[in-house]
Amino acid sequence: MAEKIEFAKKPEGDEPWDVAIIGSGPAALTSAIYTTRGAASTIILGGEIWGGQLMLTTTVDNFPGFPDGVEGPDLMRLMREQAERFGAEFIQKNVESVDFNKNPRELIAGGTKYSSRTVIIATGASDKWLGVPGEKELIGRGVSTCAPCDAPFFKGKKVAVVGGGDSAMTEALVLTKYATDVIIIHRRDQFRASAAMQQKVFANSKIKVLWNTEVTQVVGQSKVEKLLTKNNKDQTTGEVVVDGVFVAIGHKPDSELFKGPIEMDERGYIKVYEHTKTNIEGVFVAGEVHDQHYKQAVTTAGFGCMAGMDALRHLDKPTPTW
Predict the structure, then answer these.
(1) CA distance 201 to 217
(2) E strands in 198-281
(3) Which sequence positions are flagged as catalytic?
(4) Range with the lowest mean pLDDT among 100-109, 240-249, 313-322?
(5) d(CA 91, CA 46)
(6) Distance of alpha carbon 58 from alpha carbon 45, whole angstroms
(7) Taking the C-alpha atoms of 169, 170, 174 and 176 in order, what is their torsion angle to the nearest 10 degrees?
(8) Which residue intervals define the domain FAD/NAD(P)-binding in the entry (predicted)?
(9) What is the extent of the structural domain holding 94?
(10) Which helix (H) or strand (E) element contains residue 131?
């Protein structure tokens, strides 16, 4: 690791931090890189299981700066080291509560109270999984939730997509650029996706559909080999031999902690006002906890950059009267 450079003095005694970042994925760590280099004392409340979804991936080929690709956990380790090199304090504890009515803002993580002049929420979103045997064990070894990330690894192979909404249609269409066969497995007898997306799927000769079908098990040793299925109409069972399976049954923003003071949409995604601002002054948001569209590591990092810069601008303002 390169020599540590501290751009901001850490608070002493009861002094608040300049910036508290909740989360530890690309958005959170990029925010910290910018705030520390902007001379703002920064604490990252990263969680006991840190690093976000990239900790579950293998080779990442679409993050700039790595022409030969980079392992997801390695990328996150490098980001963390970079943030810590510039003076960010990383606390590997879960945030249990927040109080945005107080100024400075108050946060409790691992039973310890922290206060901060600004807060960046970068808790991300969680993929919804099937919850069947073999799925968890083969994540990153044929089980994926991101075709734009992993589709090139399935060139010339046979894959399945589980789901029936627009995201499932998008995954399937991306995969047809690489795979020889794409099977969409859907538990109902019709898709929930928009008519336009369905039309594209039905027009693609590479895509086949298994209706009224549920995956009951993902089978494989070192990689996905096949899926065990059940028809929920006639209860017949079967198997589908594939090299990979893409689960596209939705995402859930990790925003439960902030319900009440922070405004959200009906799905729990945090609402953004003017770039990265939330409805509360001095509280910003970055990444998949608000982004429903892009959901890529590089865009998440970009949102982190924006939130970090917005927090610095806020700190430059005269202290408000509360």
Answers:
(1) 25
(2) 207-210, 213-219, 226-231, 237-241, 244-247, 251-253
(3) 146, 149-150
(4) 313-322
(5) 6
(6) 25
(7) 10
(8) 18-299
(9) 17-126+252-315
(10) none
